[in-house]
Specification:
The chain is mainly α. The chain has a single domain, classed as MazG-like (Helix Hairpins, Orthogonal Bundle), CATH 1.10.287. It has five helices and no strands. Helix 1 packs across helix 4 and helix 2 runs antiparallel to helix 4. Bound molecules: magnesium ion (MG). Magnesium ion (MG) binds next to helix 2 and helix 4.
């Protein structure tokens, strides 16, 4: 079974392209990047809905793995966000790993911002 440990981001980009082809979305499996970026934000909002109005105890329960139903709903919306992100990266031709590593290096080497979270 495929998982994070045995699947590359390039393979996932291609999986999403194949889905678009099967569904007839976009031109030859490539959707308009403006639409993809907007859809990614909509999906992020759907993810956030699962956090709306939680109190601290609910968040702790979630973080400790004691709310599997909510966790599954969050994972599904996370997948939607990531699928659009993979499409965006493929269409615009950027390497996700390279961009994340470049960003980590930037954050590592900049002074902490005022009010940065300590936790
Ligand atoms: Mg969704």
């Amino acid at each position: 079974m495929r998982n994070d440990g045995n699947t590359t981001l390039d393979e996932l980009k291609e999986d999403v392209r194949q889905l678009c082809l099967r569904k007839g979305w976009g031109v030859e499996g490539v959707q308009d990047v403006q639409h993809v970026a907007m859809a990614m934000t909509v999906e992020m909002s759907e993810l956030l809905e699962h956090f709306q109005w939680l109190d601290h105890e609910d968040v702790v329960r979630l973080m400790e793995g004691n709310d599997p139903e909510r966790s599954a709903l969050i994972a599904e919306e996370f997948a939607d966000v990531m699928m659009y992100g993979l499409q965006l990266a493929r269409t615009l031709g950027f390497d996700i790993t390279g961009e994340i590593l470049r960003k980590i290096d930037i954050v590592d080497h900049r002074p902490p911002k005022a009010g940065s979270p300590k936790r």
